[in-house]
Amino acid sequence: MPGGQERVDAFKKRAAVPRGASTAQIAADPVRRRPEPRMLPAMTNTPSVPQFCRRALATATLLSICFATVGTAQTPQTATGTIKRAAPVPRPYEVTEASVTDLQQALTAGRVTSVQLVNSYLARIAAYDQAGPSLNAMLRTNPRARAEAAALDAERKAGTVRGPMHGIPIVLKDNYDTKDLITTAGSLALASHQPKTDAFVVAKLRAAGAIILGKTNLHELASGITSISSIGGQTLNPYDITRCPGGSSGGTGAAVAASFAPIGWGTDTCGSIRIPAAFASLFGLRPTQGLYSRDGIVPLSFTQDTPGPLARTVTDLAIGLDVTAGGDPNDPQTLVVSGKTLPKFSDSLRTGALRGARIGLFRPYFRGVDGDIADTVRAAAQSMRALGAEVVEVNMTDFDDLIADTRAITMDMRFDFIDYLKRTNDAPVRSLSEIIAKGLFDKQLEARHKSADTVQSRDSEGHKRVVARQANLRARMIAFMDSAKLDAIAYPSIGQRPVLVGQVQSASNCALSAQSGLPSISMPAGFTSDGLPTALELMGRPFSDVRLVSFAFAYEQNGRRRRAPVSTPPLVNGKAPAPVTFMVRAGPATGGATSQFTFNALTSELRYTVRVTGTQGATTQSVVQAVVLRRVDEAAVSTSGVAQRRVINRMLGPQMTASSGTLRLVGTELAAYHAGLLSMAVFGNAGADPVAEVSIRAPK
User: Fold this and answer.
1) Which of 152, 282, 565, 635 is the most exposed place for a label (fewest CB within 10 A)?
2) How far apart are CA 54 and CA 34, in angstroms?
3) Average pLDDT of the residues in 324-334
4) Strand partners, 186
5) Which three-class secondary structure state does DSSP give residue 515?
6) Catalytic positions, written as ranges
7) DSSP strands (E only) in 132-210
8) Among 654, 589, 606, which Cα is nearest to 627's?
């Protein structure tokens, strides 16, 4: 099997430049961008480069010219007349879409060091987090990451490799305590909060050799699903930067999707791992509570909180789950696994895992789902039949009554947060009430914070009733699965597209798993017609986590449903690809139009300057009435069987000879651009049809 770098290079050749890619994407692939250099024919009476260099040694000026010619740094001449040449600068290691296993193979083979990996990921963060698409996924990077990587490289050189995470950079949601990095949970009130110890999960990651590259933004105090915070601002979705990334672990989801790290950690109270995974085409498991310690994680609701990883592949997810599981005396919930042999996720990855499994499509969670998403998720679920699974429709007529009044978050938040602050003697604030009184929160959180702060008692009758109803929900769902002979229940992770920034996200199906305590895994299901990721979720019985991950692995091997976001392509010589400019001409020399287009793949912006061709006088103006951008609508077919075209922008109108503008292509328009389905059409006086129409797409 080829090693990590070769596999990444092969991936770039096959997939990094999709059909209809822009030149900005092509520029990101040096294999496609630059042909092999041709050998020039020999020229008589022309000195070779070495001959020229020897002659040039006569003067310092010619010497500098020589070195500029051969591309070598100038160095002093030695006593023997030979020249010491500087060592070439190492080519940045390509990490885009590289998995943990890819990177570990490359490290083992000596093709890369952990220091180089850290540098490569930091370069991507510099190019895309606060520049280019400005995803705003990272709150801070670790200033000691390179030093930690160097120490782990030294260990490897000395013959010690701790395991599959040795020397691998990762990112953490900023509600995990880190002894060397401030932990804010996205709150301005905790801007100076420096924990003295690592969270249990973080300590296990460090012990496994992981490098904490940085910490990610989140929905403030993990209390929401759009990932906006008073200290971090709004994180953007790399698949459409006008939309939210889900939450509350949206910073981690966006960072892993954009290849700021191969894997990252979040938390899930009600969908906060699974929703960002769904919106970023990632795998994310909400584990059975008790498998993973919550100690050292800023809580939202201890009744429902659980940590977990988000990854681009199931194998990486399994590695992350293996190294962080275990009992912790500081979290009594983990007593269920203390002293027991822990499940080994990596050992469960079998391509035949779905053979004989019975999967139930859960009708209550398909109600109210966007039709495009429902179709994509159903098709993904049905694909498991080809792997030997039986897929059936199942229903629970009293489900709405069963799940009502099972949410504990509002009842827990005030008291669990106070408990966390009490364990930190020098916390900047002491309560949620103090945060509210000082106004240290994003305005979107005001109503939620104030509602949580009105709860007067942790042991109220209302809270006891919620806990009892959660236990009943869990028992009923297990009995339902038993009676229907189901191995897992399947449904969309979330039933609506990610909302535009500033809007309220709805249609989450997070509650069933979160409020029953049953494990569930979110898996990429494909994309909507406008290029947004969708997700299929499988929920199982208590402690069936290993089997769910095995199902996900078999599903993944049957066809890759993930694709990388176009807003964060591979770097070129350590930098983001530059915008690409090209010309388009439509129509005759007189009475047509010419436009210069510039497309920026990082921001999805298309700039244009269009001019009417020919004499810019009354005659020309009367010939050209309008120049527009149109999109082929493959879903709408005319009576003649031809796909219809939709006007998406008027570039130039009557009595105009020139015009400029900028469009941000999103969703369907962006997908159409990359597929070559956008066109520039010139309309004149010859009826309703355009005089000329030409496809616009950057040349390959």
Assistant:
1) 635
2) 31
3) 96
4) none
5) helix
6) 173, 248, 272
7) 138-141, 169-173
8) 654
What is the rounded CA–CA span in Å between residue 444 and residue 434? 17
Tens digit of pLDDT for each residue in 439-486?
999 999 999 999 999 998 888 999 999 999 999 999 999 999 999 999
Domains of the chain: 4-70 (no CATH), 100-557 (3.90.1300.10), 580-695 (2.60.40)
φ/ψ of residue 699, rounded to 5: -65, 150
Spacing of C-alpha 492 from chain mean position? 18
Partners of 358 in beta bridges: 390
Whose tokens are 């993990």? That residue is 222
Residue 63 burial (10 A CB sphere; 0-12, 13-18, 19+): middle
Cα 693 from Cα 681, distance rounded (Å):
4
Please state, in angstroms and rounded to a whole number, the distance separating the CA atoms of residues 286 and 296.
Answer: 18
Q: What is the largest CA-CA distance in the chain?
A: 99
In the block, residue with structure tokens 């698949």: 239
Q: Does the pLDDT of residue 214 top 60, yes or no?
A: yes
Task: Return the pLDDT at 86.
Answer: 54
Classify residue 58 by its DSSP letter.
T
> Under DSSP, is residue 452 helix (H, G, I), strand (E, B) or coil?
helix
Q: How far apart are CA 122 and CA 104, in angstroms?
A: 18
Residues 182/196, Cβ–Cβ less than 8 Å: no
The secondary element (H helix, E strand) that includes residue 682 is strand 678-683
User: 260-307, pLDDT tens digit by residue?
Assistant: 999 999 999 999 999 999 999 999 999 999 999 999 999 999 999 999
Smallest Cα–Cα separation from 670: which of 28, 96, 240? 240
Name the nearest CA neighbour of 106 among 148, 158, 153. Answer: 153
What is the rounded CA–CA span in Å between residue 280 and residue 309?
Answer: 13
pLDDT at 639: 59
Question: How far apart are alpha carbons 277 and 523 in whole angstroms?
Answer: 8
Q: Which two tokens stand for residue 682?
A: 């010139």
Judge whether 143 and 178 are in contact, CB under 8 Å.
no
Instruction: Locate 69 and state its tokens.
Output: 């010619």
Residue 550 to residues 75, 491, 492, Cα–Cα distance (Å): 58, 18, 19
The pLDDT of residue 638 is 57
CA dist., res. 561 & res. 681, Å (int)? 35
- The beta-strand segments (E) located in 497-547 are 520-527, 533-539
Q: How far, in Å, CA of 695 to CA of 592, rounded?
A: 15
β-sheet with 580-586: strand ranges across:
580-586, 593-600, 605-612, 658-664
Structure-block tokens of residue 141 = 């990077």
The conformation of residue 647, written as its DSSP 8-state character, comes to E
d(C-alpha 225, C-alpha 272), whole Å: 7
User: Which residues touch 396 (CB under 8 Å, ≥6 apart)?
Assistant: 362, 363, 364, 402, 480
pTM assigned to the model: 0.85
Token pair of 228, please? 């906006």
Distance (Å, whole) CA 296 – CA 193: 13
Strand 533-539 and strand 520-527: the pairing is: antiparallel
Which of 400, 368, 404, 396 shows the shortest CA–CA distance to 494?
368
Q: What is the pLDDT of residue 671?
A: 86
Nearest 10 degrees: Cα torsion 160, 163, 167, 173? -150
Q: What angle do CA 109, 114, 116 make, to 5 degrees?
A: 100
CA distances, 57 to each of 52, 73, 77, 406, 696 (Å): 9, 15, 9, 83, 52
The 10 Å Cβ neighbour count of residue 501 is 16
One-letter identity of residue 154: A
Strand-pair partners of 610: 595, 659
Q: State how far the alpha carbon of 229 is from the alpha carbons of 220, 277, 482, in Å.
A: 4, 19, 42
